[in-house]
Amino acid sequence: MTSRISGPISRWIGGTGAAVTLLLVLCSCQRQATVAPDSEVVARVGSSTLRLGEFEMLLRSVRAQGRAIAPEALLDEWVERAVLLARAEELRVRESPEVRRAMENLLIGELKRRELEPRLASATVSDTEIEQEYLRDSAAFSRPETRRIAVLRQRFDGLASDAKRERIRTRMSEARLQALERTADAQGFGALAVNASDDPSTRHRGGEAGWVGSGDTWRWEPPVIEAAFALELPGEISPVIETTNAVYLVRLEEVRPAQRLPLTEAAPRIRQRLTLERRAAVLAAFASSCRIGRTLEVHPERLERSAGPADPPDAQAPAVGAADALVRLRPPQSPPSIPQ
């Protein structure tokens, strides 16, 4: 039967699965070494022959993609594409690096869809595993006690005279007496901080320094944090604290007790972390399994011919000698375990 070519090329199959099926069918048609019996042939374009069994496979694939199409219309489209493919072969389009890479990407994508994606989809984490991880790593889900404080600070340099240091201590002691007159429910040091403190980030906010933990010494000197956690009740004020750099006054504003993050709040974080770990293991096992039975040769030293000057080598990386230039990865004795 001679088929008519009908419809534009844009009507052809959508979807990776159908495209891969078409690629395999066309390649299979081109590789036929013998002419198929006429009773099996449904179309022939030059050396490409489409047999009935191949056409039925293509039709099933197209319909599985959700496209309703009559067999005759699909046959017309196959002929249209086969003609274009024949012309592309005449022009040796297949040998173009861009085309070759596009075909490789298509095949690799289909391989991952068939073998990798089902394994990734099975890399799930159960509620029981989440609870076990929550109990095992309890410290990771505990919030330590924090305290909200207000601070007055007066700095002096290391060359300050004893008389100057004494004047600063006296001023801070006077500020403490004024601060003690404030009610316990007052916020911070109030307007007192403007004149009694030289810290630009807090003096115009009543000395408000925010929340601190027992180990938060990146902002304040350790004696300041120690004094904050020595106070017992909100509204209490520390004695004058003197360090080699400054004198301080600390007022406790609020206490947030240590608490354990509830399982309901910790569960999403645990699930995400465990899932990422399992997916990474699946990816590594899949990559390793693909190397089984294959010998790889890698010549990194040859990259220097085209890559230009290399970056300075990592001080921790071992030097690569001439004997190490050829790296051979021998096939492992048995395939790695792939999480199911």
Concise synopsis of the structure shown:
The chain is α+β, with helices and mostly antiparallel strands and 340 residues long. The protein has helices at 16-31, 52-64, 71-90, 97-121, 127-136, 162-180, 192-196, 222-230, 263-289, 304-307, and strands spanning 41-45, 48-51, 142-143, 146-155, 208-213, 241-242, 246-256, 259-260, 296-298, 327-329. It is built from ten helices and ten strands.
Description:
The chain is of the alpha+beta class and 340 residues long. The protein has 3 domains: 82 residues, no CATH class; 75 residues, no CATH class; 113 residues, Chitinase A, domain 3. Helices cover 44% and strands 14% of the residues. It has 10 helices and 10 strands. Strands 5-4-7-6 form a 4-stranded antiparallel sheet, with helices on both faces. β6 and β7 form a beta hairpin. The longest helix is centred in the last third of the chain and has 27 residues. The protein is elongated. It starts with 15 loop residues before the first helix and ends in an 11-residue tail after the last strand. The N terminus and C terminus are likely disordered.
